[in-house]
Protein 1
Amino acid sequence: TSLVPPPPPCGCPPLPLLPPLGAPACGIPPAWAARLGATGFLISKCCFPLFKAKPGKAKRVRTIFSSEQLARLEQEFARQQYLVGQERCLLASSLHLTEEQVKVWFQNRRIKWRKQSLEQQQAKLAKMGLDTPQR
């Protein structure tokens, strides 16, 4: 039976069928191999978002904080919501993180704190029977 690739959802013409995935891939450029679908069909660039990244701009890898790091960051945030200069440097060094990672964590945590504060304020107003303020 001959497998015919379905047309891509973007309306681009389907690209030609390549040899099955198990077949030797002599001469196929690595970029093509990365774009092979599970069916063995070549996926068009416009349908493959990984190839739409801006040239020269690498995506930042998401930092996974350990539970100990998070506990210490939360402890410092409870003490003060802004860390600058030497304080940030010392905290970053003690947690084996970069200053940038600590800075971004504090920025994100302040956003979360503001959102929680607003929700609590709206809940109090709703309890008192008042309308919630408009943003």
Note: The two ends are 61 Å apart (CA to CA).
Protein 2
Amino acid sequence: AMERNYVSVFLLLIVISCALAKDAGKKDSKDTTAKPKLPQTLSRGWGDQLIWTQTYEEALFRSKHSQKPLMIIHHLEDCPHSQALKKVFAEHKDIQKLAEKFILLNLVYETTDKNLAPDGQYVPRVLFIDPSLTVRADITGRYSNRLYAYEPSDISLLYSNMQKALKLLKTEL
């Protein structure tokens, strides 16, 4: 049982050092020249340089008023599938560039809007909503049992689905 104690102490140290590092980082970033950015926490690691909305309501409002499509990513911090998808999403240069054309929201909780769970509340799932606030049920991944799920190996499909969400927009409006 001795090793067990070491492990928990070690984990505690990691948590403490992360917390301290975060605070240290905050104090240094008093750079007034940079345009104010939303706290990095909103990205939750999906793309720190992208602008993320905080709530579903805000995202819908912004989508409607900017006439940009909305991309919503449902995920959970402790889900290995979510983590794996997040990693390839954040490291994919083309996706990160294309994401700038969207209103972006990532959620670690479910909304009360049933339209965001057309075939269940699984994670990770990615849905597109157009500025008329219609969920794009036609933009799906490759799994028939989880229509809006993507695996890391599906990243190029997700990229082309993002392009599709933007392209159809141009022809419809």
Note: Residues 141 and 154 are 8 Å apart (CA to CA).
